[in-house]
Amino acid sequence: MASSWAGEQGHRALPRKRPALPRNPPAPIRPDMEPIAVFDLDGTLVDSAPDIHSALNRLMTRLGQPGFSRAEVIGFIGDGVRVLLERALGARSLPFDQAALDSFMADYTAHAAYETRLFPGVAEALDALKAGGWRLAVCTNKPEIAAKELLGSLGLLPRLSALGGGDSFPVRKPHPDHLRRTIEAAGGLGAGAVMIGDHHNDMAAARGAGIPAVFVGWGYGPLAMAEGAPVAATPPELPHELRAALDRFGA
Description:
Layout: E1 3-5, E2 11-13, E3 36-39, E4 46-47, H1 49-62, H2 70-76, H3 81-91, H4 98-110, E5 117-118, H5 122-131, E6 135-139, H6 144-153, E7 160-164, H7 176-185, E8 193-197, H8 200-209, E9 213-216, E10 231-232, H9 238-249
Parallel strand pairs: 3-6, 3-8, 6-7, 8-9, 9-10
Antiparallel strand pairs: 1-2, 1-7, 4-5
Helix pairs in contact: 1-4, 7-8
């Protein structure tokens, strides 16, 4: 289930099954509403490829298979852990295996923050957004328990108003309801929210939800995945680009 936070007030669980959110255009943002910055996780906030790479190669060793290069693993990231495993196993001419997925997840979750770090400048950008009145949320295809462990280890969890993991809802990115429900968990409406990510799934979810998106130039996805969205080349550009995205969207 998704999780939501409000500073030091703890968290509350949201129901796993919820009716589909309205497909109507978002209502105009009210002056008293805080804007919401909804971030992807892997490749956007954090450079998690080193720990994913290590866990995947440990799995390959257990399976008696050769490992992968870092570039190959980065190419597997972005569509959730099951797809990552399907791609990795397929590259070794192996069928998908639930036991292999369970083994990978147990190993990765226990070691998710060994080498994973915030991208340089991200912490300062988040501080600037919070100081500017933005709520922060994460919408990731990573399973919620792994995302929560990682965010907690990096000290980001208390800053978030909501976390929508890849298994928090019946759908995940690029389905827009994953993003819509994360925004709802953060206490917001569609209007006044911006999706920030490094993958075409992030851009597609934002389009489907009817909100603006900003693509990050330091992540794992090629710039072609921006698909016309504005690009923040470095984290210090985020506060300006997010406000400009809302202004262009008519918020």
